Amino acid sequence: MKTGHKPENVQRDFLRYTGQQIKFLLQKNDPAFLERFRVDAKDRQYQLWERNSWSKALWTPTVYQQKLQYIHNNPVKKGYCKNPEDYYFSSARFYTSGIDEFGFLEKGQI
Hints:
The chain is mostly helical and 110 residues long.
């Protein structure tokens, strides 16, 4: 990581930016779905990311695959879809089809 960039600050900024972008997309395309993320908090209307989430080091291919499967299966567990590939905001479809609908995905190398 570049000098002066603390991992916790990078993560905080990443979560803030992506949360805002997801919120904007949902406000425009699916306001009813956005309401699932409404919270009763003083500092926010919506909670898109888990509070106090911490990034995990992915040191081995096994850990990488475990975490990727966990992430891909979250929308299924929550009842948003039947299969991970069916969830629009998931990269699962990319891993099964190889088609990058978002324009920035790559299969990682550990």
